Amino acid sequence: MRTLRALSTASFAAALALLVALPGSGCSAPAARSPDEATAKAPPAAPTPAAPPANLIPQGTAQAPALAAPAAPTKHKYAVATENATASAIAMDVLARGGSAVDAAIAGALAIGVVHPVSSGLGGGGFATVYDAKTKEIRILDFRETAPKDLVPTELTKRPVPEDHRGVMTGVPGEVAGIAEMHARWGKLAMADLVRGAADAAEKGFPVSAHMTRALKWNEKWLLSSPRYGLFAKAGAIVPAGEMVKNPALAATLRRIGAEGKKAFYEGAIAADILATARAGKCRMTKKDLEDYKVLDREPLRTQWEGYEVVTMPPPSAGGVMMLETLHMHSKADLAALGHNTGAYTHLLAETMRGAVADRVRLLGDPAFVKMDVAKLVSPERMKARRARISMTSTTKAENFPVTDAGTTHIVTVDAEGNVASITTTVNNMFGAQLVTEGGFLLNDELADFTAERVEKLFGMSKGPNYPRGGARPTSSMTPTIVTKDGKPVLAFGGSGGTRIATGTTQVLLSHLVFGMPVDKAVAAPRFETPPTGGLFIDAAIGTEVLQDLEKRGEVVDTSKPNFSAVQAVSIQEGPDGARVLTVGADPRKGGAGLVQ
Q: Which positions does UniProt annotate for L-glutamate binding (predicted)?
């Protein structure tokens, strides 16, 4: 028996209780269904088992003493990593019923929208990186929110916008279209089956997580005054962690989408609800904007590095660019020689990432509106020239500009057939635009990711690459990534936390590939961020000696900022007997929950 980092006792108990309660959570796999059957009537639920499978192994993180895990199976079938125990249990149940990795990721994403609406939900959007075991291809789907066609750029350039104009930051939601497209390509179970776990949690109640309670308290003034979002406040106070909360309006919305597909969201009553809610906040979204929304295929960014192929997000995400710039600037040997999380290692990476942040502002935008030579931008030649300018004894003064991006969630799933899904979704800032529909979900404020006027002036630009435009998709930090070796996936990961996504995921990748750290340890290890506001945000757990070393190099370190930039990851390895070994890294920073069977 091996001892694994486990979920907290309360969280794991809640997850398993929910798993037992979910209809049809037996392990027999139903027959595969075609995409055309997505709206078919769901089959009768299988009998509910008396207990979850004995070899369901909790992995990842906890904020309580580790639990003794059941004996590991000789061969792992599938795995899930999300930021919440309820969502992980729902996604794992889908895999146990024969669903694909994409099915499980869809179910998990919908569940996160119920239990962690601070981060994502039906009113948001995202990106997906998917490995198809049959074709042995990695595909990327962009379901990022788009600006309404009638957008007036000047309404966005000056920040912050007035409270009663928060809707001007709302983009056309892409999550439901993205889920529908993923399901059509890689789904096995009916869509009604995939929404059931999230809808049941919303209808019957779910435990409020510690992270959710923190987020609620940070937004207490708004929540206590929001007539449509009183579910998280009782008797004039924010509900405590562990309290059961219900959202029946959202449950009804989910079930309708499950029965009717994406048409139910982009047309009819739900669409009218979205428009009325958005326009009350001065958004210029129209019925045609919703009807015309499209999910886009993107060509992945790829690079060969130290025997691995890293496949990640292209623009309009900047996260993949930052990751590739880092890889092309440094060799494994050079980084390993510095030592993991030493002062020298941390400083070198911080200087690397400051350059990438500047590249994002100056050079990246929506490919439909901006011509970018990304290959040249991340080329080893350009990166070597930049590396030569980095001093190991002094720090580059960063431009100081405001950033408010703070939300987002990431999900990784691996199924028994070897398919892998790495999916990031978001409503942008905490609770998005703080506009709540009658259908029980929040609208995003994703257009805040367009470059503000102050930032453009700081960089000497006028209408730069990420200038607000009608129909454009704003630059993002999201970085869903899959790493392969000899053509086979060995690692899938991504993260949340706004601008901390790219820095966090890149650090986890290097910890695993350079220093050989198991992904659970790589995810939980101390991390840093190079914020556009300057300085270096860093986890205090890195140690006093390292902090002092960084200060000697001119770094202005700040350990006071809470770090909830959660990374979720799954590694896929072949054991000595040829059996597949799956290891999950679920980030403790948001109470992550990883499950393996």
A: 144, 426-428, 449, 476-477, 498
